[in-house]
Amino acid sequence: MLFSLKKKFIFIANQKTASTAIEKVLAPHADLRLVRAEFGKHLPFKTVIEHFGWLTTRVALKDLFVFGVIRDPVDYIISMYNAHTKERFRGVANLYTGDMSFEQFLSVWAAKHPDHVRPQISRFKSADGELAANFLISYDRLQEGLEVVAERIQVPALAQLPLENQSPQKISRGDLTPRQITWIENHMRGDADAIRHDCNRLRVPEAVQA
Predict the structure, then answer these.
(1) What is the number of other CB atoms lying within 10 angstroms of the CB of residue 129?
(2) Are 36 and 43 in contact (CB under 8 A)?
(3) Residue 183: CA count within 13 A, CB half-sphere
(4) Rounded to an integer, what distance in angstroms lies between the CA atom of residue 94 and that of residue 163?
(5) Cβ atoms 135, 67 nearer than 8 A
(6) How far is residue 171 from each of residues 15, 127, 174, 176, measured CA to CA in Å?
(7) Which helix (H) or strand (E) holds 68?
């Protein structure tokens, strides 16, 4: 999560959506930088406002550009599984997935780590449940979306995003059964609707107008 008073933006860092690379470019422009998972990197918007709302005494919330990236829910869950096959997760709070099947991941791992597999769209909602993002980028249109953001907040380097923290490719969508795909779509309900109706367009959310 990045909060910039000078550039007037809040970046809400979703998981498995190039957040590390985005942070690498934008961190020098941010007054508040939470870039490690254990210290709040992936805080949802409503928690950011609860904890750091005092910053809006310097810049009004309605003047801040709130943005982030959201991914196809099936691809998101696959990437979550693949990412945690890395050896650095072995023995860390039961996060390692390298020794389990994808079925075990859905039935056991997901239950133990609900914050990692909750609907992505929930990160971008205000306390009253309204979408708070001015611009929500769909991952499949990441480059296009970042070009819009780069121009909006006047950080040209964002349009040339570096590759960071790439996940291994242990499985792909073709390895999933129809039942597993249905489970993901049901569990992540709301993400697909958000991608269809709310992504890749500039908005003035009711949640940040006041």
Answers:
(1) 10
(2) no
(3) 15
(4) 27
(5) yes
(6) 18, 36, 8, 8
(7) strand 65-70
User: Is 161 exposed, middle or buried, given 0-12, 13-18 or 19+ CB atoms closer than 10 A?
Assistant: middle
List, in order, residues 6 or more apart from 41 with CB less than 8 Å away: 1, 13, 19, 23, 34, 35
**Token code pair at residue 15:** 């998981």
66, 12 in Cβ contact below 8 A? Answer: yes
- Give me 131's structure tokens: 């979408």
Residues 6+ apart with CB under 8 A from 195: 70, 72, 138
Domain boundaries, the chain: 2-208
For residues 23-45, average pLDDT: 94
Cβ distance 96 to 113 under 8 Å?
Answer: no
Per-residue pLDDT reduced to its tens digit, 102-157: 999 999 999 999 999 999 999 999 999 999 999 999 999 999 999 999 999 999 99
Q: How many residues does the chain have?
A: 210
